[in-house]
Design a protein that fits this description.
This protein has about 500 residues and is of the alpha+beta class. The chain has 17 helices and 11 strands. Strands 1, 2, 3, 4 and 6 form a 5-stranded antiparallel beta sheet that branches. A 4-stranded mixed beta sheet has the order 5-10-9-7. Helix 8 runs parallel beside helix 16 and helix 13 packs antiparallel against helix 14.
């Protein structure tokens, strides 16, 4: 799959210039850019991307789309976040990424979808395969691919993601130049960063756990809080940049030297130090440089790009998903099995609902015994087992559920590589707290205490894990002291 992502054929520079000039209302190419790299940064199945620098009269001043007048309370909260969370200091890039659709790509996509539809229908003839709803999945995938053929949609997705994450420090999304974006051209802020794949290849060093936690936190917030999920989270679409904390904005003090356009791009300076050690050229030097970067006060932040594919659950499926998530978080596999049967597309066609629910309970208890640390299990194996049960018991699931499952599988591969000891439910706990705070009062008025039970269970589990770890540490420490004392005593007597 990585070969398909990176080795697609490119279209000519002549075609690129023709399409870009049309997006800028016929403005001559040399009057659009101060710099333009003729070699594409990357070539995908439907488009290719270039790095360029816009003329000063066309460039946008940073994050003006997110700027808003803050009242006193918001200003105080922002300053507290700056001091405690180390809010990233935004230094907007003067460069842009230009994404250009391949000419005639719509025809190619229509042909490929017809081929996929034919084989999905062919596979559907095999007994029990029909319950995986492969033709429906191809149709849904086709709709998502057709949306990718209009780059204005990707620009709109970027705008939504930026608003969702404007108060979060874990991830950032490039600024889209919507006034220059057309169906065939997307102009966005150039993402200054190193691909996450480099950290998976060379190791994250001292930042390994932090990068993994930030990625999981961002994904779970998309999934559980925003209901707006980046559905193409392979490592090539995730970048890592480094930042220094921004200064608190004082209410009555004039800020000096705060013009972002005049500030040095510290991100590029940090990245220049890491680039010589990429592609496993010198992993020890890479890790040593990361330690220096950490000691100098720089922190990592993820940048998500290529937001053309997103997943949103409708109201019914979102409620079903959250109910199912709560059941799994409570390790109540029996309830999860019944929920899957009751809320599938054809409940009357389900075979042996009770046995299906008992199998789910057995599966979930097996997961509970190993915890949800990625190093202790493979989510892919668990989901494969669930899909096998779905086939055998004729539980037909909704298509957007499958999209969420695919996103989770992609996330697992990244998370396992970076931090095998990451615990999914422990990472989900802060997001569940926020989700409960947003909807908790209404749930309590209706007598629904399920979220409180999830919180209590996970909080108790986290406390017990911390207590066990503390006891284990103290025990090992005591044993080491006893051994050392015994050795000294033996030496004295001998």
């Amino acid at each position: 799959m990585s070969q398909l992502h990176s080795n697609a054929p490119a279209h000519s520079l002549h075609e690129t210039k023709r399409i870009i000039q049309r997006a800028f209302d016929g403005r001559p190419f040399d009057q659009i850019f101060e710099e333009f790299d003729k070699q594409p940064l990357g070539v995908g199945a439907i488009a290719q991307v270039y790095k360029a620098k816009l003329k000063p009269d066309l460039a946008a001043p940073g994050d003006h789309d997110l700027e808003e007048q803050r009242d006193f309370r918001q200003n105080v909260r922002k300053n507290v976040d700056t001091l405690i969370k180390r809010t990233p200091q935004r230094v907007p890039s003067s460069y842009v990424a230009i994404k250009v659709l391949h000419p005639g790509v719509e025809r190619v996509v229509r042909r490929d979808l017809r081929i996929m539809g034919f084989f999905a229908s062919l596979l559907n003839v095999i007994p029990t395969i029909e319950w995986l709803s492969l033709p429906d999945e191809v149709r849904q995938f086709g709709e998502m691919m057709r949306l990718q053929l209009d780059l204005r949609i990707e620009s709109a997705n970027l705008t939504i993601f930026r608003k969702n994450f404007k108060e979060r420090t874990t991830a950032w999304f490039p600024y889209p130049y919507t006034e220059f974006t057309t169906r065939q051209v997307l102009v966005e802020e150039f993402a200054q960063g190193i691909p996450l794949s480099d950290f998976m290849e060379n190791g994250g060093g001292i930042f390994q756990q932090e990068i993994a936690e930030e990625g999981l936190d961002a994904f779970l917030r998309m999934l559980l809080i925003d209901n707006f999920v980046h559905a193409d989270l392979h490592p090539g679409n995730i970048m890592v940049r480094f930042y220094q904390s921004s200064k608190p904005r004082l209410l009555f003090k004039k800020q000096e030297g705060e013009d972002p356009q005049t500030q040095p791009d510290v991100t590029e300076q940090v990245l220049e130090r890491l680039r010589p050690f990429r592609h496993r050229k010198d992993t020890k030097a890479w890790e040593s440089e990361l330690i220096k970067i950490d000691n100098e006060g720089f922190r990592p932040q993820l940048i998500f790009i290529d937001t053309g594919l997103v997943t949103e659950l409708n109201a019914t499926n979102r409620r079903n998903f959250l109910d199912l998530f709560k059941a799994v978080a409570e390790f109540d596999g029996y309830k999860a099995g019944h929920l899957m049967c009751e809320r599938c597309r054809q409940p009357d066609a389900v075979i042996d609902e009770e046995i299906f629910s008992l199998k789910m309970q057995h599966l979930v208890l097996g997961v509970k015994s190993r915890t949800l640390a990625l190093g202790n299990m493979k989510i892919g194996d668990i989901l494969n087992e669930v899909l096998s049960m779905v086939r055998n018991h004729h539980v037909r699931m909704e298509g957007d559920f499958v999209n969420v499952v695919i996103s989770i599988l992609l996330l697992e591969g990244i998370g396992r590589n970076l931090d095998p000891d990451m615990d999914l439910l422990s990472s989900a706990l802060p997001i569940l707290r926020q989700l409960g705070a947003q909807s908790g009062s209404g749930m309590l008025r209706q007598g629904d205490f399920s979220m409180l039970k999830v919180w209590a269970g996970l909080e108790a589990r986290k406390f017990l894990q911390a207590s066990i770890e503390d006891v284990r540490t103290r025990f090992i420490h005591s044993v080491n002291i006893t051994i050392r004392s015994f050795r000294l005593l033996t030496k004295a007597l001998g």
